[in-house]
Amino acid sequence: MTKAKTNKRVRAADKPVRIAKAMAHAGLCSRREAERWIEAGRVSLNGKELNTPAVTVTPDDTVTVDGKPMPLAGPVRMWRYHKPKGLMTTHADPEGRRTIFDALPKDMPRVISIGRLDYATEGLMLLTTNGDLARHLELPATGWQRRYRVRARGSVTQDQLDKLKSGVEIEGIRYKSIDARLDRQQGANVWLTMTLREGKNREVKRVAAHLGLEVNRLMRLSFGPFSLAELRAGEVEEIKPRVLADQLGEKIAAGFGLKSSGTHARAAPKPKSLKFRGKKPPRAKPPHRKPLGK
């Protein structure tokens, strides 16, 4: 009898690995999420439902998730994406709202978001095909800061904002040092630029509320060395592998199969404009100077 050929599209990995790692490398989710999916009964190995992530899979094993074959792991890739307002950062929204994955080009491979942005928040998101890389870059220990442009109702002083550099505790949650700059007061609104080191859930809005401000528009300008720059709402642009490797550093890049140029990682240049797109708010006019462009 002729031995059946293994379908490469459902092979678990190129070498024996833990099931959660195989799922992460296939771009399905992070390892932590994979463990939750297994506990929820969504993953099967060779036709049998798994009930523990403590399983090693080989190239000859067949893994299915939600009844569908797990895709073959591909090379690590990353994109910059300008998320518009009104999209959820999830693969499936219980309320049926449109997600960023619904809006991405159809020819893109399956990707995972590195962190999340709220439904009403816009701006830069990083997307990758590798769940382990996504998890690595989400961790504060990585040192990649998140910078936001904020419009909020209310008023605040620079002295109040400077106190955030020492961190702040709100309702039992401790937020690490935050760099905040008062850009201008415009009518009932104040415009700020805030740089976070952690990016905890709804951190900007909670810290603003602590200062008596109500955020009514929020845009992420940069994530680590990558900036929104001139990327328009809804646009997506792949980051070159060598650029990504340089920013990760040679040792970490090698762990993800990326080759760096050997140069030291450096921050990307600031975007030419830090303003929100669309209708421009009136600019303040300092004496003897032209209106500021930021």
Describe the structure.
This protein is of the alpha+beta class. The protein folds into 2 domains: 62 residues, Roll (Structural Genomics Hypothetical 15.5 Kd Protein In mrcA-pckA Intergenic Region, Chain A); 162 residues, Pseudouridine synthase (2-Layer Sandwich), CATH 3.30.2350. It contains 8 helices and 17 strands. The strands form 4 sheets. Strands 7, 8, 9, 10, 13, 14, 15, 16 and 17 form a 9-stranded mixed beta sheet that branches. Strands 3-2-5-6 form a 4-stranded antiparallel beta sheet, with no helix packed on it. α1 crosses α2. The chain is elongated, with a radius of gyration of 22 Å. The N terminus and C terminus are likely disordered.
What is the count of structural domains?
2
What name goes with the CATH superfamily of the largest domain? Pseudouridine synthase
CATH class of the largest domain: Alpha Beta
* Poorly predicted regions: 1-13, 264-294
